[in-house]
Design goal:
The protein has six helices and three strands. With about 170 residues, the chain is mainly α. A hairpin with a 2-residue loop joins strand 2 and strand 3.
Amino acid sequence: MSQGPIRSPRPLTSAVAEMSGLIELLEVVWERGRDTVCAPPVSSAQARVLFLIEGNEEMNLRTLGKLLGAAPPSVTRLCDRLQAVGFLEKHTRPEDRRELRLALTPAGRTYLEQLRARREAALTEAMAAMPAASRAALATGLADFSAAVAAPLRLPPQRGVESRSA
């Protein structure tokens, strides 16, 4: 079972700073070599769209916009680009033809599989250099952190993430 919330602001501030630095470092690692996964390359914003749609099958543009915190024209352009490269399909609902539903194509799913494989290889290499106890603590902490981030967004649990506090 995981520990309760951190009570002292100092450890929380330190953890937040560490997590922020890690996210920035991972963004650099992910961008470096992003175009080796497929051609044409997908931007990090477009990858976020693919991840969200994969986790919320048949999502509509309005819901996607809320999750991204983006204006409708920006969401439409992102989706149009993903549709143009064959990673996304748009369907109208029979009961309301004004509503567009978004779904990944097989090519979009393949792209995400390749992207995850490349990312997992980079993470495996980095984590192999860590002591086993640190890897175990990191796995527990990240599972709880992922659950805390996903809950307010009403996202389903992410692949491979099991919170120990649930």
